[in-house]
Amino acid sequence: MTPTDLVLTPLGLRFGGRVLPCTIGRGGLSAAKAEGDGATPLGVHRLIGMLYRPDRMAPPANWALPIRPRDGWSDDVADPDYNLIIRRPHPFGHERLWRADPLYDLVVLTDWNWPQARKGAGSAIFIHQWRGAGRPTEGCIGLARDDLRWLAPRITLQSRLIVG
To answer: What's the 3-state SS for the chain?
Structure first.
């Protein structure tokens, strides 16, 4: 472990001398993550990117990229672009990144099942804003908006998310 690692603990996400309350997937933690199971995958995950809504906030870090209105993320195992960012409209199943709600205003991307995705092993494991304390995600790590905005400029591409 390094000082820049984010470590999931029973009390929350530990980083920078703080423990940030968080939520995990509705399916709990899993060593056998599968698409649609709602589980947060166990393991050591690299951070590979950060996305933000430029109409709702300034860039949270110098390496963050803006989310555009037609951006999405493929979660369809039949898609050749499975577990990659895509442009909508898109002929396969996907999540919209540009959402009406604030859930994806700021998104930290992990390397879960990336870049060479195994079909069906799960997609879109992010760190993003939660729906509220105790309200699970679909497999991601959810944080309160203020905690996520505090975290974003302090992490780097050398930071890792440790779940286990």
So the answer is: CCCCCEEEECCEEEECCEEECEECECCCEECCCCCCCCCEECEEEEEEEEEECCCCCCCCCCCCEECCCCEEEECCCCCCCCCCEEECCCCCCEEECCCCCCCCCEEEEECCCCCCCCCCCCCCCEEEECCCCCCCECCCEEECHHHHHHHHHHCCCCCEEEEC
Bridge partner list, 104: none
Q: For residue 126, which phi and psi values (nearest 5 degrees)? A: -115, 170
Do 83 and 139 touch, CB atoms closer than 8 A?
A: no
For 26-69, the pLDDT digits (tens) are 999 999 999 999 999 999 999 999 999 999 999 999 999 999 99
* pTM of the predicted protein model: 0.97
